[in-house]
Automatic annotation (TrEMBL):
Residues 8-137 form the Saccharopine dehydrogenase NADP binding domain. Keywords: Membrane, Transmembrane, Transmembrane helix. InterPro entries: NAD(P)-bd_dom_sf (IPR036291), Saccharopine_DH-like_oxidrdct (IPR051276), Sacchrp_dh_NADP-bd (IPR005097). This is Saccharopine dehydrogenase NADP binding domain-containing protein. The chain crosses the membrane at residues 266-288. The keyword Nucleotide-binding does not apply. One of its GO terms (cellular component) is plasma membrane.
Length: 422
């Protein structure tokens, strides 16, 4: 890869997430002398982003590229060592950028949380990415990086063999929050993701024709419960965390012959009332995604159907500054690790380890820090990333790198809470 290329190009830099990326790219430019540029359709808008967030840096290159113009995307990719793609929904706008990066022999990162898109990219482009010697890594933001790498961290710290991991996500704000909390693009991606969820079964059958061995004791899902590790009421989290984690666990089994952990992901609410309110919104949301008419209403009136959590207006900066999160991991397993991953333990699990990933940053800040550090890790630690290229999850790509350590240094904290043996 040519040394005269920029280290990172942020494509979609004028969007809500893209602006956050530029803001943090300035910090990393100063910290690590990282060369970066911005890309998008409109020169004036890109100039405005640079003026707002990078005015103290000389000559941040502006690259004009349009998702509908394949040649412009390839020209953009040829100017970068890594492209961070912020243009979603990715089911509509992700694939052309992936193709351009493979053609230009450029690494690719995005912050998608859309399983259909992510898994289809692996099915259709893994071989091409390997042949080009580039890494295509999706879901490098919040909450996938804390969840997937949190599981990797837990496995590294367990000191035995894990049977199951349950994750508990909590999100809250400090102070009084006014206005929307989530960006409209996140809402739009969720609408189309649920509308096309039926694609996943066929997609996964093609992607993984061979089933994993069955491991015992089987991890059972709990619809609504109180956990001993997460205060409040917890229910199954419908985001992409579990699907990404399970792909990582399969990769570790097939590549390194490690026993894959069974995984279930939960989200915790402070009160039963909060759960009922969100569950009601979620049920209405789900039913409306079943028809084109319902989807159009959701997209036209997001504030109405989200009780104000989402609107066409982007969340205010103060809202993100007041946001906090944590993910607690409950791992059960054995102190003894057997010789083969398919060997069966005769005794019930005798060890429990609790870990946590947390930050005083909000989701969009975490997304920006995590995605830029993911890109830097690819640039600096390619020798620690497997297979010399391919479409990988964050856990598969970064499990043997220093990314967790780097995240810790940037105030996304991974820690062991307790370790108990029976």
């Amino acid at each position: 890869m040519a040394n005269d290329r920029l280290d990172i190009v942020i494509f979609g830099a004028t969007g809500y997430t893209g602006k956050y990326l530029v803001k943090y790219a300035v910090d990393f430019y100063k910290e690590q002398k990282m060369k970066f540029g911005v890309a998008g359709r409109r020169k004036e808008a890109l100039e405005a982003v640079i003026k707002e967030f990078a005015s103290d840096i000389e000559d941040v290159p502006i690259i004009l590229a349009d998702i509908k113009d394949e040649e412009s995307l390839t020209k953009m990719a040829k100017q970068a060592k890594v492209v961070i793609n912020c243009c979603g929904p990715y089911r509509f706008y992700g694939e052309p950028v992936v193709k351009a990066c493979i053609a230009a022999h450029t690494h690719y990162i995005d912050v998608s949380g859309e399983p259909q898109y992510i898994e289809r990219m692996q099915l259709e482009y893994n071989k091409a990415a390997q042949e080009a010697g580039v890494y295509i890594v999706s879901a490098c933001g919040f909450d996938s990086i804390p969840a997937d790498l949190g599981i990797i961290f837990t496995q590294q710290k367990f000191g035995g063999e894990i049977n199951s991991i349950e994750t508990y996500l909590k999100v809250w704000t400090v102070g009084n929050v006014k206005g929307s909390v989530l960006n409209y693009g996140t809402w739009e991606s969720a609408v189309y993701g649920l509308a096309h969820e039926n694609e996943l079964r066929e997609l996964r059958t093609k992607l993984y024709p061979t089933k994993l061995p069955k491991f015992t004791p089987k991890l059972k899902s709990k619809i609504l419960h109180k956990s001993d590790v997460s205060e409040g009421w917890s229910t199954i989290f419908m985001g992409s965390d579990r699907s990404i984690a399970l792909r990582t666990q399969r990769f570790l089994y097939e590549k390194y012959k490690e026993r894959p952990a069974q995984v279930q992901t939960y989200i915790t609410f402070e009160s039963l009332f909060s759960f009922i309110m969100v569950a009601t919104i979620g049920m209405i949301f789900f039913l409306m995604t079943r028809t084109a008419f319902g989807r159009n209403l959701l997209l036209k009136y997001p504030a109405l159907f989200s009780c104000g959590f989402v609107s066409h207006e982007s969340p205010k900066l103060e809202t993100q500054e007041q946001s906090r999160f944590s993910i607690t991991f409950k791992a059960l397993g054995w102190t003894e690790k057997l010789a083969e991953p398919t060997d069966k333990h005769t005794d019930p699990p005798n060890k429990k380890v609790i870990t946590k990933v947390s930050s005083a940053f909000g989701g969009y800040d975490v997304t920006s820090i995590a995605s830029i550090l993911s890109a830097i890790t690819i640039l600096k630690e390619t020798d620690k990333i497997p297979d010399n290229g391919g479409v990988l999850t964050s856990g598969a790509a970064f499990c043997k790198t220093s990314l967790i350590e780097q995240l810790n240094k940037h105030n996304i904290i991974f820690e062991v809470i307790s370790s108990i043996e029976k």
